[in-house]
Design brief:
Elements: E1 13-26, H1 32-36, E2 42-55, E3 60-73, E4 82-97, H2 105-131, H3 144-157
Helix pairs in contact: 2-3
Length: 164
């Protein structure tokens, strides 16, 4: 048998590391909110995906899944809902793309990478809200393809500024 001189093929997507980049949990009206809260708070979720190239000469990227969960409740007589809690999480991963053409990198970075990070971010968010004294916030499935398509449509609809 002859030895092959070629290196083993690299997978097209490598997860180098994933980590909680930033996390905060706030209960602005504690401890009073715990005595006035009669039902689980209404939770509003905002989610964003951010990508930045780490090494200009290489296809190594940091992808961050940013999730903000804000719990509110209606307080008797108040017009504006009271904030019960605010949970912010930036969960990130460093990914290497091997042999993927530049024009095919965007959907991998904005769809596939966040899809890999999501279950871990979901668990952290559930844990911090539960440990904060509230029912755990359980994120449902996220349509990352739809988010990516929406982002592309928004950037295509932005007017271009002509140089004067």
């Amino acid at each position: 048998m002859s030895e092959q001189a070629t290196a083993p093929a690299q997978p097209p997507l490598v997860v180098n590391i994933q980590y909680a980049k930033d996390m905060s949990f706030e209960v602005p009206n504690a401890p009073a909110i715990f005595s006035t809260l009669r039902s689980p708070p209404h939770v509003n979720i905002n989610l964003d995906v951010q990508v930045r190239r780490i090494e200009e000469a290489h296809t190594v990227f940091e992808v961050t899944l940013a999730v903000r969960a804000e719990g509110t409740t209606q307080v008797n007589g108040e017009e504006k809902p009271a904030v019960v809690f605010i949970a912010d999480l930036a969960y990130a991963g460093v990914f290497t793309l091997n042999g993927i053409p530049e024009n095919q990198q965007e959907p991998i970075l904005l769809v596939e990478c966040p899809r890999l990070l999501f279950p871990f971010a979901r668990n952290i968010l559930a844990d911090i809200t539960r440990e904060g004294g509230f029912p755990p916030v359980l994120l449902g499935p996220i349509d990352f393809v739809g988010l990516w398509q929406q982002r592309r449509a928004q950037s295509a609809a932005m007017p271009t500024v002509a140089n004067a």
